[in-house]
Amino acid sequence: MRSLIIAATFALTLSACATQSPPPAAAPVPAAAAAPAPAAKAPQCYNGDSGKFVAVGTTAAISGVKVVCEKTSDGKNAQWMGVKK
Questions:
Q1: What are phi and psi of 29, to 5 degrees?
Q2: Predicted pLDDT at 59
């Protein structure tokens, strides 16, 4: 009987220590303080000869072939295309 009372007291003590209050609510971030979304970058082509990206409309010669950086059909990317005559 004594061990039952001790076990019950022990269980109540542990459960009382284990209860937690909810964490305090975080303050809402004002809209003005929120970081603005970065602007979408314009499509570019990579020029391996110079080691950098170039803007759409730039012409270059690769292995003697004239090419121009043009937007792809979806407008999100760009690629080197042969110059149209």
A1: -85, 125
A2: 93
